[in-house]
Amino acid sequence: MSGTATGALDAGLLDDVLERARAVPPTSDFPTVDALLDWFAALAEDHPGLVRRRRVGTSRLGEPIEMFSVGDGPRPHLLFAGVHPNEPIGFRTLQHLAAELVADAGLRASTNATWHLVPCIDPDGTRLNESWFGDPSDRAAYARGFYRPAPSEQVEWTFPFAYKDAYFDDVIPETQALMRLIDELRPELMVSLHNAELGGVYYYLSEDLPDAVGPLHAVPAALGLPLDTGEPESPALERLAPAVYRAGSTRDEYDYLASLGLDAASLVGGEGSAAYARRHGTVTLIAELPYWSHPAADDAGETDADYVDVVRAKAESLVELGSTLTALLDEARPDLTLRSPFLRASESFVPMMTEAGTSELVRAGRLASRPATGAEVFSNQEVVRMFRLRFGGMLVRALAAEATAGLATARLHRVHAQARTLYDGWLADAQAVTGLEVLPIERLVGVQYGATLAMSHVLAARR
């Protein structure tokens, strides 16, 4: 692509961003925590004049959290990966960005920034996902090895929050480290490196920046990846443009849940990083990317299905999922002895399935009838498959931990067998979905890398 800039970004700069995004070298896996940190340590040792290494915090299990800074421009940019430890695309993105910044003085000069990179903000949680990092294309391995912390243990959603009847101040050490960095650096641009699972590319921005939309759309297009125009992650989100949403805040979620007549204070936790950084005028970018794509991800065509029925069907399935997992957890509970991360996560997420389904049932009752798009039908169905695999899988891991430790009673062995059988069926159902395409990791890295550079240039242009 040349001379085809979209949005207000200079055509030459956008062409350069797209060229760099397409030039990410092939890779087939994600690094373990040790491999990732060793790589960054070696980079700092090899380039002492360019890369500055600094410890910025400590994980709950005692792992040092480090930051590596490159460049000396007046524009502070802060990027951190592993904020959800089941989302490792950002590890490769930070490696590529750091390598390019070190090797290319022109890139450093063109952004005029100091790049502060935290390779892994949650090493404890990341280690519990490493079993599938060697072959992330294998959805079964991914699902069986999946781990996501309970919301109260997630870095992204444990910033302080006080609003109406809700109050949260149980900030975990990893989040405290990020808070210190945000307050110290006052970043102009912050990139929280997340990724999604299946579908297409979508973004979150902390501000409505119309000049950013064109470049953000151009990056995945240049790499042959679709946008995701289906159901947003939450009905509370504000859509700024196709596949671009305003970064969600817990305040928005609270007001949305309260509008449904639900007890919002009991359903929300901490605030997110974007809302916290806003006090410094920081613009936050989040690029959500799937491991697998599907032709329906950006299918805007109308279907025969009514949107109300699509949302209601999802809601009923989520309520059923919550009921099924709650029954298993309740049967096992008297004999559970290990407060493993998998059990803590299960105890948080299992009731959330019922709550999410209930709120969606209320919403469905207020929606107007209209044809659903292909993307909406697919994304609503897929979220049920995803939650079954995620939260059913973590409950199986919680029960397996008891058996592996030699602590499982006869009742726990029986519940474990029931859960495994149920889970195998859910996995087979997910594997039966046709049309999935495994996306090359380098293209996913290219989107995060290109979107970050594009945002840096967009913000520079408005100074």
TrEMBL record:
Coiled coil residues, start to end: none
GO annotation, biological process: proteolysis
Family annotation (Gene3D superfamilies): Zn peptidases
GO molecular function: metallocarboxypeptidase activity; zinc ion binding
Domain Peptidase M14: 30-331
UniProt protein name: Peptidase M14 domain-containing protein
Source organism of this protein record: Promicromonospora sukumoe
